Amino acid sequence: MKPLGPIPAGYDTIDGELAIGGRKASDLVAEAGDTPLFVYSAAHLRRRVADLRAAMPQRLALHYAVKANPYAPVLHEMSELVDGFDIASGGELALVRAAGVDPRLISFAGPGKRDGELEAAIAAGATLNLESEGEADRALAIAGRLGETPRLAIRVNPDFDLKGSGMKMGGGAKQFGIDAERVPALARRILASGAEWRGFHIFAGSQALDAAAIIDTQAQTLKLAARLAEESGAALPHCNLGGGFGIPYFPGDTPVDLAAIGEALGEAFETLPASVAETRFCIELGRFLVGEAGVYLTRIVDRKVSHGEVFLIVDGGLHHQLAASGNFGTVVRRNYPVAIASRYAAPATEEASVVGCLCTPLDRLADKAGFPHADVGDLVAVFCAGAYGASASPAQFLGHGPALEMLV
Ligand SMILES: *Cc1c(COP(=O)(O)O)cnc(C)c1O
């Protein structure tokens, strides 16, 4: 038998069933009308942001990285909770604007921004996190043509990465950002161009659970920002320190120690060098804010036994849950937190694998794990489904189509 990942805090049992936001899974499915269904809990989002704010220095602003979950009701909820939105495409710009977010709270990073995307962002008044000198040239030319003052920041490719992170996005040769040693020259050019100088964006990695690694990266990031600001010859107005706070997905994972990170950052803020003494700092988080707030509900359509192994076959799968199937940025497949939602209070009595409905052996949501006896019609819950689920899975693969989504 293989272990399952830890079920996040904040979920209850009502009448023996999993409850999300105080409502039974079967009632939520009935309201949505069908499975598979992503349910996101607004109470969970609010609690998460409140916990984060309580732990971090007041000076630190909090941004939401939209790519983790761009579902419109989630964006609307987040617009009342965070201080800014980080987007990575013109499509996300349109989604965030449709959610009523003030464009001045939006910053746009991402390699390969097309001219049309640069134009839309500049016209809206969003900040561009420039990923290359060439992109800076294009942005300045487009702004000139539009008669707009562009708001420009530089995404720095730092010379370090976030240790232990699931996805490294800094250190060495990267398609992201501008190598640190070339940043001051570009910053001087932007300052001289008459653009609104918005500072640096320094993102070193994602999905780290080790507070010591995050603290170390933040210290290096502050040091780098201060040095580059000094070499740029201007005080730094704004600095995005990146993020990288992870959530526990797998057996043995433990939550990040927010208090330790907040304390270290608070101390660092008290002894800042002159070039960043007045800087407005933020962090940008995706999965940490929304990941544990989401549950994917899918119904068992068949139960079969093959060579003594029980398979629970559901109407969902990797086309909505690529990460849970182990095919999105993982080397060794391990089980996410998965449960039989309709028998949530029942003890595990058998070993079974939960597999999706796609015609590929990759489509496995839980491998040889312990569950209560479940049958056709039962609901399965995959937890930690709030980030990189619906938005990062191949929904068109095999023609089953996208899942339903709801915010409760
Ligand atoms: C993906 C990404 C994020 C969000 O990462 P999470 O692991 O979801 O917090 C933040 N910033 C940048 C630049 C990213 O590419």
Question: Keywords, please?
Answer:
about 400 residues, alpha/beta, 2 domains, elongated, binds pyridoxal-5'-phosphate
Topology:
Elements: E1 12-14, E2 17-20, E3 23-24, H1 25-32, E4 37-40, H2 42-55, E5 61-65, H3 72-79, E6 84-87, H4 90-98, E7 106-108, H5 115-124, E8 127-130, H6 133-146, E9 151-157, E10 167-168, E11 178-179, H7 183-193, E12 196-202, E13 205-206, H8 211-232, E14 238-240, H9 258-270, E15 280-285, H10 287-290, E16 294-306, E17 309-314, E18 338-340, E19 350-355, E20 364-371, E21 379-382, E22 404-407
Parallel strand pairs: 4-22, 5-6, 5-15, 6-7, 7-8, 8-9, 9-11, 9-12, 12-14, 14-15, 17-19
Antiparallel strand pairs: 1-2, 2-3, 4-16, 10-13, 16-17, 16-21, 18-21, 19-20
Helix pairs in contact: 5-6, 7-8, 8-9
This protein binds pyridoxal-5'-phosphate.
Task: Give me a quick take on this structure.
With 408 residues, the protein is an alpha/beta fold.
From the helix content, strand content and strand pairing, which structural class follows? alpha/beta
Report Rg. Answer: 22 Å
Give the distance, in angstroms, between the N- and C-terminal Cα atoms: 34 Å
> What is the percentage of strand-forming residues?
25-35%
Major β-sheet, in short?
Answer: 8 strands, mixed
Q: Classify the helix fraction into a percent range.
A: 25-40%
Bound molecules: pyridoxal-5'-phosphate
CATH class designation of the largest domain: Alpha Beta
The CATH architecture name of the largest domain reads Alpha-Beta Barrel
If you average the pLDDT, what whole number results? 96
Query: Which outline best applies?
Result: elongated
Question: What's the number of helices?
Answer: 10
CATH superfamily of the largest domain: Alanine racemase
Question: Which segments are poorly predicted (pLDDT under 50) over 5 or more consecutive residues?
Answer: none
What is the fold-level CATH name, i.e. the topology of the largest domain?
TIM Barrel
